[in-house]
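Quiz preparation item.
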């Protein structure tokens, strides 16, 4: 570390490659420090996200209209465009921190998974030795260009976020209905042609099947099963119009085990059999 006016610190700056920026997350800078008695940063705003881990001592974080005192094991996140400041809080132990600044389309979702929000940008008691080892590996890759591997750095970044997202000493914040329902809808949109059941959707969403049903009815107007059928029927109808496939081929392509079950579902949905629909398209 190098001695500065208010700290001893190491700053690591990274220029992401096109490969890194083609993904959903990339590092911009990182570092570690040991604060001096006059330590203070801000008030200011930054252009990216930055997660800070308090290793020892304590720090007072001011954000928006709030403020909180954090100690060893706690984390806080700086959001882009959000005014903040932090400074040494009185404590017998010296303040020591790691930090990692990053950007990308997945950045906000990833910090939300940890439990950060713009209204409450900190979590208590989350930092572990496992996180520290991963952070040190990230620092090493950014520090030593001879060891730098863009794919490995991406791997370590996601590894850090996955492990920090796990429950560790605090209850995770309750997901909004929109969050888990979107996860369930995306699962159905991706896998409707496969042999999925409503129970699978509920498991992915992380809620009870009956609660999934109630919220789908309330917000989508149809049940999860009806939504899966809707996706299959619309895709089946598209293939009947635009493809030279047989009806049996189409049945198997949209998630039905045989021609009969597809024909029965299609007839119920559109009021005519797939063969009749296909014949209409050739007139």
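Solution:
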């Amino acid at each position: 570390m190098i001695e500065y006016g208010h700290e001893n610190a190491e700053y690591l700056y990274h220029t992401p490659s096109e490969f890194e920026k083609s993904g959903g997350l990339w590092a911009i800078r990182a570092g570690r420090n040991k604060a001096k008695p006059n330590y203070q940063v801000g008030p200011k705003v930054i252009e990216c996200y930055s997660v800070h881990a308090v290793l020892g001592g304590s720090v007072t974080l001011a954000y928006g209209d709030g403020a909180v005192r954090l100690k060893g094991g706690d984390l806080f996140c700086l959001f882009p465009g959000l005014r903040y400041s932090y400074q040494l809080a009185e404590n017998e132990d010296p303040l020591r921190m790691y930090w990692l600044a990053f950007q990308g389309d997945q950045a906000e979702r990833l910090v939300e998974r940890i439990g950060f929000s713009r209204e409450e940008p900190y979590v208590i008691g989350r930092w572990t030795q496992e996180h520290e080892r991963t952070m040190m590996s990230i620092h090493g890759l950014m520090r030593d260009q001879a060891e730098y591997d863009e794919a490995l750095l991406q791997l370590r970044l996601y590894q850090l976020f996955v492990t920090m997202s796990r429950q560790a000493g605090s209850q995770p914040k309750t997901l909004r209905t929109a969050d888990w329902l979107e996860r369930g809808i995306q699962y159905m949109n991706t896998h409707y042609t496969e042999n999925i059941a409503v129970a699978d959707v509920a498991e992915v969403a992380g809620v009870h099947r009956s609660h999934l049903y109630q919220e789908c009815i309330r917000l989508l107007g149809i049940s999860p099963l009806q939504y899966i059928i809707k996706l299959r029927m619309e895709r089946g109808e598209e293939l009947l119009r635009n493809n030279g496939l047989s009806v049996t081929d189409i049945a198997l392509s949209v998630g039905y085990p045989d021609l009969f079950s597809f024909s029965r579902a299609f007839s119920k949905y559109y009021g005519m059999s797939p063969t009749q629909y296909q014949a209409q398209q050739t007139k």
